Task: structure prediction
Amino acid sequence: MHTVIVILTGLLLLGIFCTAGRWRRKSLSKAALAFIPLWAVGAGINMWVGVSQAGYSVSEELPMFCLVFGIPALIAAFLVWKFR
Result:
């Protein structure tokens, strides 16, 4: 359940970035592109908390990191491609 919540948080953050990009008259693709490294840091922090606080090993957390980072990042990459 935690993984789903974190992925939905990433999608919400992507939506905020895209809305802000449109609102500030920047392009949506630039906003989505700016989201990707920020989300990599956020997903990395989530992985670090899972390893250091929850007691999971890195090998257990790595597939979850790929899901948590990958789904919102792939959608952002698609938006960059579509609106460029």
User: Anything to note?
Assistant: Residues 58-83 form the longest helix (26 residues). Residues 2-83 form one domain. The two ends are 34 Å apart (CA to CA). The chain has one domain: 2-83.
